[in-house]
Amino acid sequence: MPAEWARQRAVMLTWPHSGTDWQTQLDEADSVFLAIARAVLQRQDLLISCQDPQRAQELRHQLGQAGSDSGLTGTVTVIEAPADDTWARDHGPIAVITDGQTRLLDFRFNAWGGKFDYHNDDQLNQRLAEAGGFGNLPLVPVDLVLEGGSIESDGAGTLLTTSECLLTPTRNPSLDRTGLEEALCQLLGAKRILWLNHGYLAGDDTDSHVDTLARFCAPDSICYVACNDPDDEHYPALKAMEEDLREFRQSNGEPYRLTPLPWPDPIHDEDGNRLPATYANFLIINDAVLLPVYGVPQDGTAIETLADLFPQREVVPIDCRALIRQHGSLHCVTMQIPDDLPSGGVA
Fold first, then answer.
1. Residues 289-309: pLDDT tens digits?
2. Tens-digit pLDDT profile for residues 311-323
3. 29: how many CB neighbours lie within 10 A of its CB?
4. How far apart are alpha carbons 76 and 101 in whole angstroms?
5. From CA 298, how far away is CA 280, in angstroms rounded?
6. Which domains occur in the chain, in start order?
7. pTM of the full structure
């Protein structure tokens, strides 16, 4: 499984529509998706699945004006297909590269253990493949529940994940930790798996996806969500997660370079529930990092931190306050599709 910083051919988005929980804030969500789409198309291709035929046609017109005048040099493909929600990170295919050839693994998706409707999302990859959305890349069905947001790859044989998510019995009840490790190593080409046993975000429906908590920035570098407020409910769990990270070692026995991310001011919904704002939910694409920001004072520090971590890439902040109202953020709504290149490399 390549690292996210490996060269990419496209990013996949599943567009929000009125038949989802986005209905009450559809215009706001649509604006965020457009911002992500344009940032991607400035650098690479984009695949969009869209349930609403009228909106699909509008997107072809809005985003299909590639050329120097628009700044959109990538190609957009819009395919009409039903979807239950928009979390492409978790229902999209997971790519692996073998001998320079990319294959897309179509894991089963059950909405984080059956929490929500998921049948259309579980069938979406097959529908996109049948419509030519993945070009000549083969789509391989895998009879295992796995979400892309639950795993991080360094591109060199190490996976990072959380025990809270992968060991939840509503996903793969017949597999214990050893069984899951064997399956993931075989399917994703991993040599070892690092398990975070602590860490969570209030308002997160995914059972602590790793892409909300800690991310590989290079084979020897991990950034992570850090809370320094002892009065915050997250403080004990995130401090314990920090200790987990400090105990991890690279495959050569050296400790990782660890970089804490800013802790954003609390953001709540209209009912007073805390929303899962996190700067760890960024997306690495060709020559850029798309960073979710939330209109809070810590946004500037987060931009500076990511710029230091990825000095060869432009950091593009995108206001994702609308996304966290549905309990996800920027990385959660995207899935990258790599080029046919060796995995690994440097950030």
1. 999 999 999 999 999 999 999
2. 999 999 999 999 9
3. 23
4. 23
5. 13
6. 8-338 (3.75.10.10)
7. 0.96
